[in-house]
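The data layer described in this paper is built around a simple, fixed record for each protein. Such a record has a labelled line for the sequence and another for the backbone structure tokens. For reference, a complete record is included directly beneath this paragraph.
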Amino acid sequence: MNSVTRVLCQAAASGYAQQVADVLASGVHPDMRETDRSRTALDQAVWNNHPYVVRILLAAGADPDAKMGEYHETYALRYAAPRSMYEVAQHLLDAGARPDGPGSAGQTTPLILAAAQGDVGMVRLLLDRGASPNLVIELQLVEGVAEKLGIPTRRSPLSSAAESGHLETVELLIERGARPDGEVLVSVTRGLDRAELTYSFNRRGSIEEFALVREAIERARNIS
């Protein structure tokens, strides 16, 4: 990595906003990287949750939808959404990041990930910015693995929230147009079975919450 790129990326990773601004002022492009496998300054700023640095880089022309991560396995909004990085997500969306992502085949969307966490604030932000409450993703798994492990291959924001027992998120998604189908009820059952088996309710809904989720979904299905 050349020295200028190294300085920019290290400053972005550390949250040194003034240093980032100074390097950019010298004419360096914010998406500059030495090789195709190198990480960009925006990648480092998002990864380390430095929203002000993210804003500076985006204002200088950084691509808000560019791939990021050690293996370029994701993109900025998809990384920020399930981690409650509200300011980062806001800056990315303001800069034109597509709320449902750049369309990587078989990859869960920011909304699906936020819904799975029960993060109502992030879900609302993404919906307000145009994310689809009905976008279904067909996960790309090794043949036979899904059946063997009981992993669903189809994911939607509603099924993800339902499977984790997040009532408020389920209600918000339905209110904003999510269409509950039979698969969503299956997701509730799957989540409830897992909760009863593990008694782990730290991140997933309690058994009572799953019952309320089922009621909300069945009520919406009857109305539709």
Notes: Residues 125 and 160 are 17 Å apart (CA to CA). The chain has a mean pLDDT of 88. The chain has 13 helices and four strands. The first strand starts at residue 67 and ends at 68.
